[in-house]
Every structure is written in C-alpha cells, then in structure tokens.
Design a protein that fits this description.
With about 270 residues, this protein is an alpha/beta fold. The chain folds into 2 domains: about 1-90 and about 175-268, 3-Layer(aba) Sandwich (Rossmann fold), CATH 3.40.50.300; about 95-170, no CATH class. The chain is built from 9 helices and 11 strands. The chain has helices at about 5-10, 55-60, 85-90, 110, 125-140, 155-170, 185-200, 215-220, 245-250, and strands spanning about 15-25, 30-40, 45-50, 70-75, 80, 95, 175-180, 205-210, 225-230, 230-235, 260. It has a 7-stranded mixed β-sheet with strand order 6-7-8-3-9-10-11, sandwiched between helices. A 4-stranded antiparallel β-sheet has the order 2-1-4-5, covered by helices on one side. Bound molecules: adenosine-5'-triphosphate and magnesium ion (MG).
C-alpha cells in the first residue's frame, strides 16, 4: 500500500503532539534540520536512526531541555510554548532517560515523590500517603511488584524502569518520551517494558520510543520515523513497511513506498 496524502488525510483525530519544521544547530552542525514528527493518543512512535542522527536532540526540544532555532510544537492542536522542562511538564510531557535518574538509596515511593513529596497537615512527610499512592500506581503498571520497602538500587533493571515510568504517570504524563528504555535490559525485562508500554497505550498516553533496536521498535511501535543527519527520512506505519525497508531508510536514507518521505529522503 502506498502511504500518500490520502492516507494522512484519513487521520482525522487531532495529534497529541505535532513538531513542525524543527531545527537546531550546535556551532555549525545542524543537529536537527527541519524535522517534523507527530504522535497520536495511545500511539507509540519509534524514532530510529544511526548515532548522531538527531533523535535525542529532537526529543530534548520537546522536553524543553534545548531551545529550538526554528519550527513549532503543537500540543492537542494548539501551539505550545515550551522553553524549559517545567513548561514541558505543564503540557503533560515527561521524559524517561536511559539513566532513569532514580535515587538509588531510597525506596520506590520516595522515588515517585522525589522533589514533590506529600506532606501531612503538620508539615512532616506523609509516608503512608506516598506509599499508598505508590502501591496504587505500581499495582497497575507492574502487578507483581512487591519490593516497596527496598532501596531501588536492589531492584532489577525492569523493576527500576517501572518505577521511573510510574513516577512519570503519577504526575499525569500524557506524552511520554523514552530514550533507549531497553538498552541495558535482558530479554525478559525488555518484554516487561513492552507490557508496561501496552498498559500506557490503553490509557491514551502517547509514547516516543527512541531505540537502536529495530526489532524492539517493530514489536512495540505503531509508526516509525527515521532520521539521518538531522533530517527526517520518512515516517511509516509498522504494518506498511518491512524491517528491511526500515533498515534501508536508516542506512541509505531510502524511503520505501509504504512510507511518507521527509526532507532527508535520498533522491534516487
Ligand atoms: N549539546 C550538544 N553540543 C554540541 N553538539 C551536540 C550536542 N548534542 C548533540 N550534538 C550533536 O548533534 C548531533 C545529533 O546528536 P543526537 O545526540 O541528537 O543523536 P542521536 O540520534 O540521539 O544519536 P545516538 O543514537 O548516538 O544517541 C550529533 O552530531 C551530535 O554530536
Ligand atoms: Mg541519542
């Protein structure tokens, strides 16, 4: 099937996120060059590309970590003002970095409320309320999780990942950015992260998934956007392209018939 204008026009829902024509340069290097990507509610969009393609930089613009030189960001169809991470959070955008940024020496509940602790009317930490909230949100994401009293450094990689995700959704993330969530995980834990992602999709949360692993992305993503040298090669539904075709996009910048080409598509 040819993904052309008709295909795009049949999509009548308003995107959760639309990044249009985004550019940023560091010194003389165009790290992101007129890139456009979109994300719909309940959708997982895989961002693929070689090292240095501009994936993380693009997503850091969405999370407010980097200012953009040009382009606009629409959230739910309206232009968003995102100039710092706090702005991004106010739009429900949460990022889970590869490092997870957990406080290793404290338990899951303390991590969920890090910097946003619940207090009793007397101004002391409301540990009971925080633990109850932690059990509720973790219970939904990862029902087998029992290790609420242990410091998170004792947890497995997959469990740590679920704590990081729980922290994001506890504060009403609608848009989740996951940069290489499975890079440090074994197969079983990778599968666990896959289950977490499916739960989030059911709630209508949109997820940008950055990964080097094209197999993971194919399993989890509804669409992929491939970047090369800061430019978008193209975007496609994972059902409309093969893995080999996506590899061709990543390596050669070659846009297959099932994908919508971007400015970075090789002219053949
Ligand atoms: N803070 C920065 N200062 C200068 N150059 C940067 C900075 N951040 C990124 N770059 C450059 O921008 C380009 C895109 O980098 P980016 O990290 O976005 O790529 P990536 O696709 O995420 O790669 P990887 O798969 O290795 O994570 C690269 O050339 C990189 O060296
Ligand atoms: Mg990166």
């Amino acid at each position: 099937m040819n993904a052309t204008a008709e295909n795009i026009q049949t999509e009548t829902r308003t995107p959760l996120v639309e990044m249009r024509d985004i550019s940023i340069a560091f010194g003389g290097i165009k790290a992101v060059d007129h890139a456009s990507v979109s994300l719909y509610p309940g959708e997982v969009v895989g961002l693929l590309g070689h090292n240095g393609a501009g994936k993380s930089t693009l997503i850091k613009i969405l999370s407010g970590a980097y200012p953009r030189d040009g382009g606009s960001i629409m959230i739910n169809g309206e232009e968003a003002n995102i100039n710092n991470p706090r702005d991004a959070k106010s739009y429900g955008i949460e990022t889970i970095y590869q490092t997870l940024a957990l406080a290793d020496n404290v338990d899951a509940a303390a991590n969920l409320f890090l910097g946003r602790e619940l207090l009793t009317p007397w101004g002391t930490l409301d540990d009971a309320a925080m633990e109850a909230a932690a059990r509720k949100v973790m219970g939904r994401l990862n029902p087998n999780f029992r290790r609420f009293k242990e410091p998170v450094k004792a947890l497995s990689g997959g469990q740590r990942q679920s704590v990081a995700i729980a922290r994001a959704i506890l504060f009403n993330a609608r848009i989740l950015i996951m940069d290489e969530p499975t890079a440090a995980l074994g197969p079983q834990e990778t599968a666990q992260v896959g289950e977490l992602i499916k739960e989030l999709k059911k709630d209508g949360i949109g997820i940008f998934l950055i990964s080097h692993d094209i197999h993971d992305v194919f399993d989890l993503a509804d669409r992929v956007t491939v970047m090369k040298n800061g430019q978008v090669v193209g975007s496609a539904r994972t059902t409309d392209v093969t893995k080999d075709e996506v590899l061709g996009m990543i390596i050669l910048g070659k846009c297959p018939p099932g994908a919508v080409p971007g400015p970075g598509a090789a002219r053949l």
